[in-house]
Specification:
The structure holds two protein chains of two kinds.
Chain A lengths: L4 E3 L2 E4 L5 E6 L6 E7 L6 E7 L2 E5 L7 E4 L6 E5 L8 E8 L8 E2 L3 E5 L1
Parallel strand pairs in A: 2-11
Antiparallel strand pairs in A: 1-3, 3-8, 4-5, 4-9, 5-6, 7-8, 9-10, 9-11
Chain B lengths: L3 E2 L4 E5 L4 E7 L6 E7 L6 E7 L4 E4 L2 E6 L4 E6 L8 E8 L8 E2 L3 E6 L1
Parallel strand pairs in B: 2-11
Antiparallel strand pairs in B: 1-3, 3-8, 4-5, 4-9, 6-7, 7-8, 9-10, 9-11
The chains are: A mainly beta, B mainly beta.
Chain lengths: ~110, ~110
Amino acid sequence: DTGVSQNPRHKITKRGQNVTFRCDPISEHNRLYWYRQTLGQGPEFLTYFQNEAQLEKSRLLSDRFSAERPKGSFSTLEIQRTEQGDSAMYLCASTGDSTTYEQYFGPGTRLTVT
Amino acid sequence: DQQVKQNSPSLSVQEGRISILNCDYTNSMFDYFLWYKKYPAEGPTFLISISSIKDKNEDGRFTVFLNKSAKHLSLHIVPSQPGDSAVYFCAASDSFGNEKLTFGTGTRLTIIP
């Protein structure tokens, strides 16, 4: 299967700890997005990469959040000093087609901060 | 500021009948609209999309209608099947905004056998 993959699928951490999530996009997709989804809401945009360049960050992405996409392949999203409000599903999506807007999502990483 | 709104949190439809899911948006810059389907514990799956230059797009049992003047779109599923039971998200994008998606809050569709 060559879809978008995310690891881990679930993460439980104590408040104040750092966590890192990984996203492997569909190969050859040059655009990668991170979204966050909380209960009862739709996914909300966090940040966007074109190849290795991070081109946009949402104001939802506080200073405790950092994302990277070295070499324009996989991406990581790190949250430092986690807070209970960070508990959510973190979704990664990729796309390579510049003429359509369909993004292909991974299964997500569910973060629970206790 | 909810730029994409799905005002019906849930909808139940008999199997074989038509399901109609609605979505409204406020941002005039949106020029591409998509519907995603989501099962529990999975990421959203792309279903169908429509460009703002069209008013209808059809793919098998799924048709999306766009009314730009009303800033309204709808997804029609006919005939509805039990496997269609899922949460449906409307999403919008603008070609000048890095094509990031703005989602509605979703509508849970239940197909009654």
